[in-house]
Amino acid sequence: MNTKVKINIDSTEKILLKRGLDKNGKAQKFMTHEIRRLSDKYVPKRSGPLKNTAVEKPGSIEYVQPYSRRQWYEHKGKGLRGRQWCLRMWSDRGKEIVKSVADMAGGKIK
Predict the structure, then answer these.
(1) To 5 degrees, how large is the angle CA 70–CA 75–CA 78?
(2) Most exposed among 11, 19, 37, 68, judged by the fewest C-beta atoms under 10 Å?
(3) Are the beta carbons of 36 and 56 closer than 8 angstroms?
């Protein structure tokens, strides 16, 4: 007596697309938005244009003010606000972001 088993598996691309993990997909956009949202408290602020005019793209966040570069490298900071704000935020809250993206995509974190 022989038993035949047929297994149909979706392609890798289809699986990634279902979970929003394709290039520039929902998960990437969600992660970029979360990084910007959580970095907000770390961005130097006098009156707010630096943090309020940031542009989110699927794989990056651009701070478009003419003085953005100087603030990124030279700002002395006060409290949480200071230079290299996204990197410092990631150091503080990166695991939280990874968990929220995994939850959004239906994954698990080990």
Answers:
(1) 155
(2) 11
(3) yes
What would the pLDDT profile of 36-94 be if each residue is shown by its tens digit?
999 999 999 999 999 999 999 988 999 999 999 999 999 998 899 999 999 999 999 99
Q: Are strands 55-57 and 60-62 parallel, antiparallel or unpaired?
A: antiparallel
Q: In this predicted structure, what is the pLDDT of residue 24?
A: 85
Q: Are 66 and 40 in contact (CB under 8 A)?
A: no
User: Residue with structure tokens 């970029």?
Assistant: 32
DSSP 13-76: HHHHHHTT-STT-HHHHHHHHHHHHHHGGGS--SSSHHHHT-EEETTEEE--STTHHHHHHH--
Q: How confident is the model at residue 95 (pLDDT cuts 50, 70, 90)?
A: very high
